[in-house]
Amino acid sequence: MNAPFQARAGLRDPFTAFVCDDATADMLRPVAVEHGWSPEKVNKGGLRNAVQSLSVSASPTILFVDLSESADPLNDINALAEVCEPGTVVIASGQVNDVRLYRDLVASGIHDYLLKPFTVDQLRDTFAHAQSILSGPRGGEAQADKPHVMAAVIGTRGGVGASTIATSLAWLLGEKAHRSTALLDLDVHFGTGALALDLEPGRGLTDAIENPSRIDGLFIERAMIRANERLSVLSAEAPLHQPLITDGTAFFQLQEEMKNAFESTVLDLPRHMLIQYPHMVHDAHVAVVVSELTLAATRDTIRILAWLKSNAPQTKIIVIANRVPSGGALEISKKDFEQSIERPVDISFPDDRKVAAQAAKLGKPMAEIATGKMAAPYTQLSNMVLNHASEEGASADPKAPSGKSLVDNLKSMLAKPKDKAA
Ligand SMILES: Nc1ncnc2c1ncn2[C@@H]1O[C@H](COP(=O)(O)OP(=O)(O)OP(=O)(O)O)[C@@H](O)[C@H]1O
Ligand SMILES: [Mg+2]
């Protein structure tokens, strides 16, 4: 009965929702956007529509389904199981406040049941938990099936905060997404990748540039400086009398070895290095373009986006407006900026000098000490990077998540006499 699903592996959407009312749809859409998911994936029609749609299309990775109009939720969920592919994390919501129903739903593989009315924060928590299940170690079998994720962070102007964001992103991928992560800081003379984490950069990167033939797995293991259990850094403070002389082989080799040794790589890629060594972005799943709302940055965002479009058309792009002042002291409004670059800003980070100063003093990434308004965009960033990478790189791994998830359980239940419900 579920044979037709095999051909669809790899075409999964990261998220789809089927809701019964406008209020739920209105609450879901912005939260979907925060996660880098399309708000258009929030459909009306509840469970009935979910079953109909999924019988003719691939199942998403995370499925939100509203059971409000369902007379027999448990039974209907079983109908969903028949059309839903294994590996989907199903989050249900409904108005029935009955602990037995909740337990039956969870026992049948539903990830969570949100009782209506629920709050935006409850919704965010549920999605965060669902994502941690998808990206975190899954009972013993984990690790091996995490496809490598590579993100290149590029500042459109000097000092826009690209390195701050690169260091934070690397830290988040390690700490929050539980991925072993490498931060490769390609600002060879003035890099701050090590400094920002209160580390000595060592000679690893300069050695690699001088002698690229030495770069192999063992070299990586020795040369990289460990910031914590899941984050290692390769950065340099090359002497200023020593110009950078390399054809880029070393960088390419380092990138290759990091792909083998880590589950994610974050490149801090100064824009002049982008021009000099364009191949550095070819393998990146995501380019994080960090800008600020100024005239000059607008001009250079336009140029860098155009460059990426023609030089790395396969790379997904995240545009960040950083250091956005809270008052009206903007050189150019966000709306005008977006109009000029002909695309929306994906994430805005407020200008928060207090947090920036504290991070510098403590030698910690800004994401680690950010709270509230400053923390949310960081979460959004790491979610977007992972989602973009899995959309295209899921590519690399058609097996996708295969944990002991939901619908698998539902299906095994269906194999048994199912009428224990009622
Ligand atoms: N959102 C923010 N609010 C306030 N200050 C910030 C913010 N983001 C970064 N900064 C500060 O801006 C300064 C420059 O940051 P950073 O070194 O990351 O920029 P960059 O784009 O990498 O610069 P460079 O062009 O030298 O590589 C740092 O002092 C950092 O603490
Ligand atoms: Mg920098």
Features:
422 residues; alpha/beta; Rossmann fold; 8-stranded mixed β-sheet; 16 helices; globular; binds adenosine-5'-triphosphate; binds magnesium ion
Word description of this protein:
The protein is 42% helix and 16% strand. The radius of gyration is 23 Å and the shape is globular. The strands form 2 sheets. It has an 8-stranded mixed β-sheet with strand order 8-9-7-10-6-11-12-13, sandwiched between helices. The protein has 2 domains: 127 residues, Rossmann fold (3-Layer(aba) Sandwich), CATH 3.40.50.2300; 271 residues, P-loop containing nucleotide triphosphate hydrolases (Rossmann fold), CATH 3.40.50.300. The relative contact order is 0.15. The N terminus and C terminus are likely disordered. α2 packs parallel to α3, α3 packs across α16 and α6 crosses α15. With 422 residues, it is of the alpha/beta class.
